[in-house]
Design goal:
Transcription Regulator spoIIAA, Archaeosine Trna-guanine Transglycosylase, Chain: A, domain 4, 11 helices, alpha/beta
Length: 408
């Protein structure tokens, strides 16, 4: 039987697996996420295995197996004659670099998404660029087994890499392996990067890889259109990027609130890099809802409120879930926004579509007896290549609304 055979493709043995006709159509139409529910027979494949998918013995795709949230792996190629080898990956990295040529020549930006998962051809892998250094993020262990081949292909395709770091999004026994330097030079202890002329500090050698790439265009909008002469509240402020953008854009004052006390020092550091006196801005490490409650009780009002929550965060007294608690968060924030003010809302999750996000916003405003007009909608920038067959991959979304009290 064909699904019991092993074939050699490039440098690997591939097991041939029969899939349903419906699955064959799905994958041929470009859907990149592998599901073992599509297999005709129950199969057990080890993480990292490369497989050949067929339907009625006709080739459909090559894929790799990896246990990942809501996925059993990813499609690699629909071309039966394409070897899955170092040259295959080299071509993908070369194409990714060509797509982002403009960013390499942008004097105002030297940090961007270089490779965006399945949209660039390899689901489960993201690569970020920081002023000559590249950070590989492996979202599953299956692909990580192929890291040496990927690094070899990358070095063939990209000649300007000063050094490479890696970040593992799956569980490993040694925490020291989750974020580490792997090749080339090490970055300076404080690596300064730019986004649209705004400066931010990273500490790659300490595992500080997290960066708000998706928000680059939104931050530019805040700086150029929404901050001038305003009092701005940034909720879930992380590294302070919103406050930096607002202050550079002429904000009268910024208030940054984040549950993580470690982010306080990041915010101050980024203020200083942009010649902003941190002591003249308000920075608090506390629960967001507690601060909003405090603001309401003390009649503190804002011209602009930015709600930029994570998918989930747990504090000492409470937790926040994007899926469960956003409605209530919006309603709390409405109590502290001036009539005619601006609310900027974000959601960075595959589980909340733009349609659902808009509905959450609408429901919260209607229930609180507030009126709003949509001023702008932002998605991730063009370095976040979009896979049209996989809408869930386009996770970041932001809605900017003007707020007035009472329905109209």
């Amino acid at each position: 039987m064909i699904n019991d055979e092993y074939i050699i493709v490039g440098d690997f043995y591939l097991k041939t697996i029969e899939i349903t006709k419906e699955a064959a159509r799905k994958y041929k139409d470009g859907f990149p996420q592998l599901s073992m529910r599509d297999f005709v027979k129950s199969e057990h494949e080890e993480d990292g295995s490369l497989i050949k998918l067929v339907s009625d013995k006709v080739f459909v795709a090559y894929a790799y197996v990896a246990k990942q949230r809501n996925s059993d792996g990813w499609i690699l190629s629909l071309d039966e004659h394409q070897y899955i080898n170092v040259d295959f990956y080299r071509k993908l990295f070369t194409m990714a670099q060509v797509k982002r040529t403009k960013f390499y020549y942008d004097e105002e930006t030297n940090a961007f998404r270089f490779f965006n998962g399945s949209a660039d051809g390899i689901g489960g892998l993201n690569i970020d660029y920081f002023a000559g250094f590249y950070v590989f993020t492996f979202e599953n262990q299956g692909l990580y087994y192929h890291r040496e081949l990927l690094y070899e292909a990358f070095s063939m395709a990209v000649s300007d890499a000063k050094g490479i770091y890696e970040k593992l999004q799956f569980n490993v026994q040694n925490d020291g392996l989750k974020r580490r330097h792997v090749q080339g030079e090490k970055a300076s202890d404080v690596l300064e990067v730019k986004q649209n002329g705004m400066n931010f500090a990273l500490h790659l050698n300490n595992g500080d890889f997290d960066f708000n790439f998706e928000e680059r265009d939104l931050l530019l909008g805040i700086k150029e259109k929404y901050a001038s002469q305003k009092i701005v509240l940034s909720c879930f402020s992380k590294n302070g990027a919103v406050a930096v953008a607002a202050k550079i854009g002429g904000a009268f004052k910024t208030v940054s609130i984040d549950l993580n006390s470690k982010n306080t020092s990041k915010i101050k550091e980024n203020f200083e890099l942009n010649n902003i006196v941190a002591d003249k801005q308000e920075i608090r490490a506390m629960d967001i809802t507690s601060y909003l409650d405090y603001a309401q009780k003390h009649h503190i009002m804002f011209d602009v409120i930015v709600l930029d929550p994570p998918v989930f965060v747990r504090g000492k007294k409470s937790s926040f879930s994007l899926n469960k608690d956003y409605f209530d968060l919006i309603q709390m924030a409405l109590q502290s926004i001036k009539d005619g003010g601006t609310m900027i809302l974000t959601a960075n999750s595959a589980t909340i579509s733009m349609k659902r996000f808009k509905q959450i916003v609408a429901d919260a405003f209607i229930d609180a007896d507030y009126h709003y007009e949509v001023e702008d909608i932002y998605r991730a920038g063009e370095d976040f290549t979009v896979d049209k067959s996989f809408a869930k991959g386009n996770t970041f979304k932001s809605i900017i609304v003007s707020v007035s009290k009472g329905r109209k």
